[in-house]
Design brief:
- This protein is α+β, with helices and mostly antiparallel strands and about 290 residues long.
- The chain has helices at about 1-20, 25-30, 50-60, 105-115, 125-130; strands at about 70, 80-85, 100, 135-140, 150-155, 160-170, 170-175, 185, 195-200, 210, 215-220, 230, 235-240, 240-250, 255-260, 265-270.
- The chain has a 6-stranded antiparallel beta sheet with strand order 4-9-5-6-7-8. The chain has a 3-stranded mixed beta sheet with strand order 1-3-2. The protein has a 3-stranded antiparallel beta sheet with strand order 14-15-16, with no helix packed on it.
- The protein is globular.
Length: about 290
């Protein structure tokens, strides 16, 4: 009985304090306290400091948790999930044509299209890592310390990026990893062939143009007989450093001797496949 009376008295005392405003200060402080950060195991923005666009990209990617990875998924005419293709090098992709979803770069494309509007990161992981939208780069040796939510983590080498994921913060990322799996949150993998990360800006770098056409190759020199460097499967934003007159090319009903140098790719492309005038306005002449 003593214990019950004591508890009852304590409850009554608390009630009295609330009635006379004795806990008002505490209540106000609680009302003003920031909401707790999401748990590290959830898919959300897990650290402060990112731009509104980057946070939007994180949340757009997180909305796809549980959706199938499918090779080639997300690379239709517009951003969004598509049915995939069979990857000849991966037996696990046999059912990808039946699965609606994304591959790694398709997920990134969708996330940033939702956040930024338009289609700023069309292309595969290699194109995204070298995009004119890249504002800042981080080496593999820097680890995750300088990264912010929305940064793109990449694996491979500068000349052959094969995987990309969206950083959440707190050493976590959201990714479409491989055939037979679904989009998920993972710990960042800094070993192996981790190549570093890039931060995406809201606007493209000066001198940015779009390619057009499909299966367009760049070359080591401004000549179609020089070794091929990289293939643009569809329209892709590229930064052009300079242009020059070189080998005349006839394609798509046009003839032009102008070639543009793409510094992110270390390669040349005929101006026929660059949207704009035959000789691009505002682009300097290469030495």
């Amino acid at each position: 009985m003593t214990m019950r009376r004591t508890v009852g008295a304590a409850v009554a005392a608390v009630a009295l304090l609330v009635a006379v405003g004795g806990t008002a200060g505490t209540s106000a402080a609680a009302a003003q306290a920031p909401a707790p950060a999401p748990a590290a195991g959830t898919c959300d923005v897990l650290a402060p400091g990112a731009s509104a666009m980057a946070e939007g990209a994180v949340r757009a990617a997180c909305e796809q948790i549980g959706v199938w990875y499918t090779w080639g998924g997300g690379h239709g005419p517009q951003p969004g999930p598509t049915y995939g293709q069979i990857d000849p090098s991966d037996p696990d992709s046999a059912h990808d044509p039946e699965r609606l979803g994304f591959d790694c770069s398709g997920l990134v494309r969708h996330a940033y299209a939702r956040a930024a509007g338009g289609d700023p990161l069309a292309g595969n992981a290699y194109h995204q890592f070298h995009s004119p939208q890249v504002h800042q780069r981080f080496t593999a040796a820097q680890g995750t310390a300088p990264l912010l939510p929305g940064d793109l983590l990449a694996w491979g080498s500068a000349g052959s990026i094969h995987h990309v994921a969206v950083y959440l913060g707190a050493g976590r990322m959201v990714e479409a990893r491989e055939s037979g799996t679904r989009i998920t949150v993972s710990d960042v993998r800094l070993g192996g062939d981790y190549a570093g990360a890039v931060r995406i800006a809201a606007s493209a770098a000066p001198g940015t143009f779009s390619t057009w056409g499909t299966d367009v190759w760049t070359h080591q020199e401004p000549s179609t007989t020089s070794p091929r460097v990289h293939r643009f499967t569809g329209p892709t934003l590229v930064r052009i450093e300079c242009q020059k007159h070189a080998e005349p090319v006839t394609a798509e009903g046009y003839t032009n001797d102008a070639w543009s140098y793409l510094p992110e790719y270390g390669a040349w492309i005929t101006n026929i496949y660059i949207k704009g005038a035959a000789w691009l306005d505002g682009v300097r002449t290469c030495p």
